């Protein structure tokens, strides 16, 4: 130990690994004070940070405001809209309902999306005028399921009568070229019979969801969540960031402040609850 005593020195080390090229370049310029580190660029993440991703285009900006406006139109109730971004089709829209502690906006949207896939467990989502789901999509999905069952019973396999790759699962997102970057927004592929709940879908909410609703969005396999106003019990930025927790089997991206007026309250004490 004495042989090396004169060669020891204190070095500054970055607390976290650099996530962007700019952060890495800043560390490199400080080579006299920072210990060197490796950097593996995430091109998708980089495109979001530097603003080159299509998400920031004027066309997408207009669509985001359009769908958020629909969600805000349910005021004074908290509203929400579920959209398939690959076709810009509204899958379901609605609001929270009184009379039951679990019937928040997101929970009602879950059931409405399930109805488009031949399911649905909440009676009130089927006969409340202001809770809407895409009935044409429901008919298409029901036909697909029946056709798939018929083919199976007749012994028709995936290989018969199909071109190569036709039976493979495909992502619903229109940004398939970004899947190779390992983005959290590029989720699992969708079977030909339709998605599992919100696989590949974007959800627009007038208010930040609570812990229960945020976890429901994870279970739904949501692609992105956009919300306008923070909530007192919000779990995607105000009181928690549940979508960033380790150990989750799915993650979605979160974007806030869509059409939220400048100067509006941001202190939790001045905000309303999720639903």
Rg (CA only): 23 Å
How many beta-strand elements?
6
Structural class: alpha/beta
Specify the overall morphology: elongated
- Numbering strands along the chain, what is their spatial order in the largest sheet? 3-2-1-4-5-6
Number of helices: 6
User: What does the average pLDDT come to?
Assistant: 80
Q: What fraction of residues sit in β-strands?
A: 5-15%
Largest sheet: 6 strands, mixed
From the N-terminal CA to the C-terminal CA, the straight-line distance is 64 Å
Instruction: State the helical fraction.
Output: 25-40%
List segments where confidence is low: pLDDT < 50 over at least 5 consecutive residues. 156-189
* Element pattern in H and E: HHHEEHEHEHEE
Output the keywords.
26% helix; 275 residues; alpha/beta; single chain; 6 helices; 6-stranded mixed sheet
Write a structural description:
This protein is an alpha/beta fold and 275 residues long. The protein is built from six helices and six strands, in the order αααββαβαβαββ. It has a six-stranded mixed beta sheet. The model is unreliable at 156-189 (pLDDT under 50).
Topology:
Elements: H1 21-29, H2 43-50, H3 58-72, E1 79-84, E2 89-95, H4 105-116, E3 132-133, H5 135-153, E4 202-207, H6 211-219, E5 224-229, E6 253-256
Parallel strand pairs: 4-5, 5-6
Antiparallel strand pairs: 1-2, 1-4, 2-3
Helix pairs in contact: 4-6
């Amino acid at each position: 130990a004495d042989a090396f005593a004169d060669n020891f020195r204190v070095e500054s080390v970055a607390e976290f690994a650099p996530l962007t090229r700019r952060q890495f370049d800043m560390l490199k310029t400080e080579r006299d004070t920072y210990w060197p580190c490796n950097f593996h660029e995430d091109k998708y993440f980089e495109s979001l940070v530097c603003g080159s991703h299509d998400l920031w285009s004027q066309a997408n900006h207009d669509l985001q405001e359009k769908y958020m406006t629909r969600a805000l139109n349910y005021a004074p109730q908290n509203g929400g809209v579920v959209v398939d971004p690959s076709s810009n089709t509204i899958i379901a829209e609605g609001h929270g309902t009184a009379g039951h502690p679990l019937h928040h906006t997101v929970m009602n949207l879950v059931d409405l999306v399930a109805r488009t896939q031949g399911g649905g467990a909440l009676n009130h989502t089927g006969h409340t005028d202001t809770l809407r789901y895409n009935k044409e999509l429901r008919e298409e999905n029901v036909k697909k399921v029946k056709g798939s069952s018929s083919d199976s019973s007749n012994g028709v396999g995936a290989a018969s009568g199909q071109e190569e790759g036709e039976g493979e699962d495909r992502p619903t997102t229109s940004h398939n070229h970004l899947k190779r970057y390992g983005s959290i927004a590029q989720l699992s592929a969708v079977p030909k019979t339709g998605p599992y709940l919100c696989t590949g879908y974007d959800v627009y909410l007038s208010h930040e969801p609570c812990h229960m609703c945020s976890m429901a969005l994870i279970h739904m396999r949501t692609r992105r969540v956009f919300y306008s106003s923070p909530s007192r019990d919000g779990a995607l930025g105000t009181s928690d960031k549940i979508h960033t927790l380790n150990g989750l089997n799915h993650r979605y991206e979160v974007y806030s402040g869509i059409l939220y007026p400048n100067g509006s309250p941001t202190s939790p004490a001045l905000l309303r609850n999720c639903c």
